[in-house]
Write a structure and sequence with these properties.
Immunoglobulin-like, 3-stranded antiparallel sheet, 36% strand, mainly beta, 136 residues
Length: 136
């Protein structure tokens, strides 16, 4: 069976990069930490991750190749604690979100174990371009 790709459609030109982004995002669908995405206005969104136990210093937020990447790594506090039960996750994570053209990452806020990352969508003006036809 042949795998259909965006490049196999004759009217879809230049979408190879989008196809790679979709494949890469599908591979990183781990379930930790849990998150919400909400639309806060017509042109703004908020991603909220549950990062209980992480401090601001344990988190890194970057934009790489049109992807918002949020990483968490807790530092070892050096104490020799003995756990009778350890039910609170203390593992590192990486969450990636593909950003459409025009989506800009705003501020990040940490409150009550939740990390909020605000996004805004700037819509470019529609441009109509007329191409002149010359004799060959």
């Amino acid at each position: 069976m042949t795998k259909l790709t965006l490049g196999s459609y004759p009217h879809m030109l230049g979408f190879e990069q989008l196809e790679r982004l979709l494949e890469r995002t599908a591979k990183s669908s781990e379930g930790y930490p849990p998150f919400n995405i909400e639309q806060t206005a017509d042109d703004s969104y908020r991603i909220t991750l549950a990062v209980a136990g992480f401090s601001e210093a344990d988190l890194a937020i970057t934009v790489e190749d049109r992807q918002l990447v949020i990483r968490g790594r807790q530092r070892d506090d050096g104490s020799e604690r003995v756990f009778l039960h350890r039910g609170i996750a203390a593992r590192q994570f990486q969450r990636s979100f593909v950003l459409a053209d025009g989506v800009e990452v705003g501020e990040a806020i940490m409150e009550n174990g939740l990390l909020h990352v605000d996004l805004t969508l700037s819509r470019p003006e529609a441009v109509v371009q007329t191409i002149q036809i010359r004799k060959g």
